[in-house]
């Protein structure tokens, strides 16, 4: 278990299927001071708990429109504020209370505009090692990254680089037995009978995301938005690229670099 010397605020960027979730889990296990701040999880939690923000976001989703960036930012701000990692002395509008009467006009939350100057935003962030987190799901674009910059400086961004054909192979070779979650790999771990689960004999299926056409479309979208995002962080001097064909190849390199930057010398 490795202790950190200062707060790490980190983002992993990589193509769909590259294994960001795997790396996140491994890092959180290895560095107990590191949390995951996932916009998707926060969104689901707020919808479930019927917070004003959750209700407003749900209305957007039901209407088939994207949840606006300002709402996602508020979810993140609220979470960090609740954890005591972000404090605001000046600006009240962002301090959304979870009590519904505090915001009668919940549907209007997306109309609030972020302040344009960074330090004028009135936020202070904690640099305590325990205030370390991996920001997951947001930002996805350079514009969103600029919005995050106004709250706190992200100080380590990892460009996870695996050749597209390697991810593609992995996806095409992966078959699952849904009821049990058993995963087969037609190259390295094939089922005894092609297309059938070893234990039950049930038909194996592909996960929706493992459909090559679905994946190619997602990759294209990722490439378009991630380029400016990577450039944004490259300019800020916090980008680091790691290459590897598998999660097992990437993890040790990632740990080494992360520790070089953040680990407390013991
Ligand atoms: C991120 O990784 C990709 C894939 O290896 C590489 O082509 C690109 O130059 C990297 N981006 C930056 C900004 O370093
Ligand atoms: C199959 O296993 C090999 C070796 O462990 C790995 O490199 C490859 O990514 C795996 N493919 C899938 C689909 O899990
Ligand atoms: C990773 O995959 C690429 C493309 O298949 C291959 O050229 C390269 O040698 C592989 N690297 C390693 C370390 O296995």
Structure description:
- Its main location: mitochondrion.
- It catalyses: a ribonucleoside 5'-triphosphate + AMP = a ribonucleoside 5'-diphosphate + ADP.
- 39% of the residues lie in helices and 15% in strands.
- The radius of gyration is 21 Å and the shape is globular.
- The strands form three sheets. The protein has a five-stranded parallel sheet with strand order 2-5-1-6-9, sandwiched between helices.
- β7 (174-177) and β8 (182-185) form a beta hairpin.
- The protein is built from eight helices and nine strands.
- α2 packs across α3 (52-62).
- By secondary structure, the chain is α/β, with parallel strands linked by helices.
- It has one domain: Rossmann fold (3-Layer(aba) Sandwich).
- The protein binds 2-acetamido-2-deoxy-beta-D-glucopyranose (NAG) (3 copies).
- One 2-acetamido-2-deoxy-beta-D-glucopyranose binds at residues 159, 161, 230-231, 234, 239, 241.
- Residues 163, 165-166, 245 line the site of one 2-acetamido-2-deoxy-beta-D-glucopyranose.
Compile the SSE list and pairings.
Elements: E1 9-14, H1 20-30, E2 34-38, H2 39-48, H3 52-62, H4 69-82, E3 86-88, E4 123-125, E5 132-136, H5 142-149, E6 156-161, H6 164-172, E7 174-177, E8 182-185, H7 212-235, E9 239-243, H8 247-262
Parallel strand pairs: 1-5, 1-6, 2-5, 6-9
Antiparallel strand pairs: 3-4, 7-8
């Amino acid at each position: 278990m490795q202790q950190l010397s200062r707060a790490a605020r980190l983002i992993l960027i990589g193509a769909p299927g590259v294994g960001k979730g795997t790396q996140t889990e491994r890092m959180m296990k290895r560095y107990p001071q590191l949390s995951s701040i996932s916009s998707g999880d926060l969104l689901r939690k707020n919808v479930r708990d019927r917070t004003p923000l959750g209700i407003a976001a749900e209305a957007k989703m039901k209407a088939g429109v994207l949840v606006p960036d300002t709402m996602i930012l508020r979810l993140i701000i609220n979470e960090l504020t609740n954890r005591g990692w972000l404090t605001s002395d000046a600006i009240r509008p962002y301090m959304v209370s979870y009590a519904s009467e505090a915001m009668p006009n919940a549907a209007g939350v997306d109309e609030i505009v972020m302040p344009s100057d960074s330090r004028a935003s009135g936020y202070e962030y904690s640099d305590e090692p325990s205030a370390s987190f991996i920001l997951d799901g947001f930002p996805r674009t350079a514009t969103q990254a600029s919005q995050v910059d106004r709250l706190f400086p992200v100080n380590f961004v990892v460009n996870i680089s695996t050749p597209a054909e390697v991810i593609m192979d992995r996806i095409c070779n992966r078959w699952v037995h849904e009821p049990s979650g058993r995963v087969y790999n037609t190259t390295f771990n094939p089922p005894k009978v092609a297309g059938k689960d070893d234990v039950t004999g049930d038909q194996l299926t592909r996960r929706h995301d493992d459909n090559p056409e679905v994946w190619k479309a997602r990759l294209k979208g990722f490439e378009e938005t991630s380029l400016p995002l990577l450039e944004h962080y490259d300019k800020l001097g916090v980008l680091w690229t790691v290459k590897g064909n598998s999660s097992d190849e990437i993890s040790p390199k990632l740990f080494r670099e992360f520790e070089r930057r953040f680990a407390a010398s013991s």
